[in-house]
Design brief:
With about 270 residues, the protein is an alpha/beta fold. The chain has helices spanning about 5-20, 120-125, 135-145, 165-170, 190-195, 220-225; strands at about 20-25, 35, 40, 60-70, 75-80, 90, 110-120, 130, 150-155, 185, 200-205, 230-235, 245-250, 260-270. The strands form four sheets. The chain has a seven-stranded mixed β-barrel. It has a two-stranded antiparallel sheet with strand order 1-2. Strand 13 and strand 14 form a beta hairpin. Helix 3 packs across helix 5 and helix 5 packs parallel to helix 6. The longest helix is centred in the N-terminal third of the chain and has 17 residues, at about 5-20. It is globular, with a radius of gyration of 19 Å. The two termini are about 25 Å apart.
Length: about 270
């Protein structure tokens, strides 16, 4: 995407935020009040229940200080440790692309855009290996119009209803059991179609991976990240998003040389 197109994406996003304001600033000294009812949090809390790949360690948070000081005021501070890929997070291109950009280099213009929410939950409810297909994309566009340039496509499988139950969400709750993973994802054909025919800046999904859980060679990751585009996984509350009209913001932790990282994702309704 050209520099102009990326600038346009950010401009559209900022205009959407302005449209969500209940009161507009009369001048630079008047604060803007945002209609919080139009903001949807699409991020799972990071804590001991956060879901990671079966061969990864979990999220650890420890309060080193949490009480009164000798000077008689309260003070709390802690530290945390976590794998890059787990919970609501970003896959940076370098995750599956030797020459791909790392997380700190992912442009914010590729993390903000109109949300095109393609629902395949009815099929996923009957088949936990279901994949979003080219036919799903075409059916969506027949109903809602073409996916706009600069969009972030969100594949809605309905899997969020299982989070954080590892057995139901991942297909296995056994540590190290990568072979037992079973959950919906994108099809390689659908991602190839988007890359060749639509100007989409990112894709997202409400499961643990862009590829279905039973994938062994991760073609979706290799295709999408190979095109130097970010992906977002474990999106929460996808069921609250309209098919079109919302603007989605996927703001990752800016980890130097990161292959991915925790991400605060939210959407603003029209």
């Amino acid at each position: 995407m050209t520099r102009i197109a990326k600038s346009a994406t950010i401009t559209i996003a900022l205009l959407t935020l302005a449209a969500a304001s209940a009161v507009f600033a009369a001048d630079a000294n008047t604060p803007v009040k945002i209609d919080t009812a139009k903001i949807i949090d699409l991020t799972y809390t990071f804590d001991a229940s956060t879901i990671y790949w079966p061969d990864e360690k979990g999220f650890v948070h420890r309060l080193d200080k949490n009480g009164d000081t000798p000077e008689h005021y309260f003070y709390a501070a802690g530290d945390y440790a976590a794998p890059e890929h787990g919970g609501t997070h970003t896959d940076a291109p370098h995750h599956f692309n030797r020459n791909g950009i790392t997380l700190d280099k992912v442009p914010l213009a590729d993390c903000i855009g109109p949300a095109a929410v393609i629902d395949f939950s009815a099929r996923a409810a009957k088949d936990r290996d279901a994949m979003l297909s080219v036919e799903d994309i075409k059916a969506y566009e027949a109903a809602y119009g073409p996916i706009p340039d600069g969009a972030i496509v969100v594949a809605r499988s309905g899997w969020g209803k299982f989070y954080p139950d590892k057995k139901r969400y991942m297909g296995t709750d056994k540590p190290g059991d990568v072979a037992g993973l079973r959950f919906p994802g994108y099809s390689a054909a659908a991602v190839d179609f988007l890359l060749k025919n639509r100007k989409v800046v990112a894709i997202a999904i409400d499961t643990a991976s862009m590829d279905p859980g039973n994938s062994k060679d991760f073609p979706v990751h290799r295709l999408w990240l190979g095109a130097n585009k970010p992906g977002f996984e474990n999106v929460a509350n996808a069921d609250k998003l309209p098919a079109k009209g919302a603007t989605i913001f996927c703001i990752p932790m800016k980890i130097g040389d990161g292959t991915g990282g925790p991400t605060r994702i939210f959407a603003v309704l029209p």
